[in-house]
Design goal:
Distance between the termini: 20 Å
Strand content: under 5%
Oligomer: single chain
Number of helices: 2
C-alpha cells in the first residue's frame, strides 16, 4: 500500500511539471500511471485472496 501512495505522490509532482510545459515530465507521469495500475492490480488480488480465506 505504501508503494502505491508513493507512486501517487510522484505522479502529482510530475503531472504538475507537465502542465507547466515540461514534456519529459509527461513521460515520467505515464510511467507512474503504469506502475500505479500494476500495484493496484496486485493489491486487488491480495484483497480478494484474503477475502476468500
Amino acid at each position: 500500500m505504501e508503494l502505491l501512495l508513493n507512486e501517487i505522490e510522484i505522479l502529482k509532482v510530475e503531472y504538475e511539471k507537465f502542465q507547466r510545459g515540461n514534456k519529459s515530465a509527461g513521460t515520467r507521469a505515464r510511467k507512474c500511471l503504469q506502475n500505479i495500475k500494476k500495484l493496484s492490480q496486485d493489491l486487488r488480488v491480495q484483497i480478494q485472496s484474503e477475502k476468500k480465506s
